Amino acid sequence: MPINIPKQLPARNVLEQENIFVMDLDRAHTQDIRPLKIVIVNLMPDKERTETQLLRLLGNTPLQVSVTLLHTASHQSKNVEPSHLKQFYNTFENIKDKRFDGMIITGAPIEQLPFEEVDYWRELTTIMEWSKTHVTSVLHICWGAQAALYYHYGIGKFELPQKCTGVYKHYVKKPTVELVRGFDEEFLAPHSRYTSTSLETVQACEDLTVLCTSEENEPFLILSKDEKHVMITGHLEYDAKTLADEYERDVKKGLKTDIPENYFPNNDPGQKPLHRWRSHAHLLFSNWLNYYVYQETPFEWE
């Protein structure tokens, strides 16, 4: 089934070229079906790229999905045209009286800042608190996962000796849980972050279950016991070239940065990286939408 997005959204052309089934709202209204309502809190600087990455995964399911894009009013985005935000995005004030079947909170390149020093932290905590009563299930990605662990469960982060960037092996620890249904016992996923979360601390929290760990013995996929919160510490949504672009950006800035591990063929930045985690990205989003959103959300929110 299709994903419903505005006709003019730039991501639409990319998705149609990839044969992702998209439709506009006019056509969607002719179908006698209630679509899942998903709100995406997009905290990434390159909002258009993140839109495409997430919509690609949301659109590859048998469910009809209607997406609302949200940006923080308390932060001025420097890497996106104001006209794009005005045309395609809402702020929390616009949607606070609505209810959603699912919500995605993206990562953000601010993990070295204490949470309370992030200029939109108060607004984000308001949204996370609101989600307890207005959203069926929330998917948190990278810094968004760290923010959720800190706000909902009091679990902090710590700084790594150097940036974790590359594609790493991960292992399924709870294969019978529906979120990882169909996963290989070992799979790959990209990471791009300066901080991490203690596996022991997460495991000690009785409200959380670690479903997958990384080869560095860090938590990768975490599920709350009430199944309302899903936290991914990496970036399964990244496309093949994202880490390469981040690496080139850091080099141009003169930053001391390592070549992403296990990413470029022969460890050569001049070679085109392969997309080796695509299938598990689609599987994770499909499982989340089916088992934790569609199967759990009320048909009528009232």
Automatic annotation (TrEMBL):
Main location: cytoplasm
Keywords: Acyltransferase, Amino-acid biosynthesis, Cytoplasm, Methionine biosynthesis, Transferase
This protein's pathway: Amino-acid biosynthesis; L-methionine biosynthesis via de novo pathway; O-acetyl-L-homoserine from L-homoserine: step 1/1
Keyword Cytoplasm listed: yes
GO molecular function: homoserine O-acetyltransferase activity; homoserine O-succinyltransferase activity
Active site as annotated: 142 (acyl-thioester intermediate), 235 (proton acceptor), 237
Site (Important for acyl-CoA specificity): 111
Protein's name according to its UniProt entry: Homoserine O-acetyltransferase
Biological source species: Salinibacillus kushneri
Gene this protein is translated from: metAA
